From TrEMBL:
Span of domain ABM: 5-97
Keywords assigned by UniProt, alphabetized: Monooxygenase, Oxidoreductase
Cellular component per GO, a single term: cytosol
Keyword Oxidoreductase: yes
Keyword Ubl conjugation applies: no
Protein name in UniProt: Quinol monooxygenase
Length: 97
């Protein structure tokens, strides 16, 4: 069985800040994809709720996720989002089949 981990992160932008949040999140995509342990990193915006954003990510292992969380672009994203996110749910998933 692989150590690969899928991350699904659901973020809800504060009212009136969705376009700003979209820009901030989008800036993190290319540098995240360039990380050694990244196997996939896709940002989505919900068609039925423009305030909701979903990252679907694949990482080689937990070490890769921890390195991602320490990366300068990830840290900058977190700082830029301060006060703009009202809900956040992050799931770390292991494939079962």
């Amino acid at each position: 069985m692989s150590n690969e981990i899928t991350v699904v992160a659901v973020l809800r932008a504060a009212e009136g800040s969705a376009d700003q949040v979209s820009e901030i999140l989008s800036r993190a995509v290319a540098p995240s994809r360039a990380e050694a342990g990244c196997r996939g990193y896709v940002l989505h915006r919900d068609r039925s709720d423009a305030q909701r954003f979903v990252f679907v990510e694949q990482w080689a292992d937990m070490e890769a996720i921890e390195l991602h969380r320490q990366a300068p672009h990830y840290q900058a994203m977190g700082q830029a989002l301060a006060g703009l996110i009202v809900e956040r749910d992050v799931m770390l998933l292991d494939a079962q089949a």
